């Protein structure tokens, strides 16, 4: 995994990737990480835009926005 900018801990990113691996979307978003992760969601981040970069493996581009 490569990170640029402000991102949640790597275990949170891994958990998000596993969540989206179970879905068929190529592009997805959420206004709130809490909707995806419950109480484990870091409060300093609001939502996320997720883009699948490979249909053959678990490769994702996550764009996080700060919390309001």
> Strand order, biggest sheet?
1-2-3
Encode the helix/strand succession as letters. Answer: HEHEE
Mean pLDDT: 89
Q: In what range is the share of β-strand residues?
A: 25-35%
State the helicity in percent bands: 25-40%
Going by helix content, strand content and strand pairing, the class is: alpha+beta
DSSP E strands, number: 3
Overall, the morphology is: globular
Largest sheet: 3 strands, antiparallel
Description:
Helices cover 25% and strands 32% of the residues. It is α+β, with helices and mostly antiparallel strands. A three-stranded antiparallel β-sheet has the order 1-2-3. The protein is globular and about 35 Å long. The termini are far apart.
Care to give the gist of this entry?
With 68 residues, the protein is an alpha+beta fold.
Write the layout of secondary structure elements.
Layout: H1 10-21, E1 27-30, H2 33-37, E2 45-54, E3 59-66
Antiparallel strand pairs: 1-2, 2-3
Main features:
68 residues; globular; single chain; alpha+beta; 3 strands
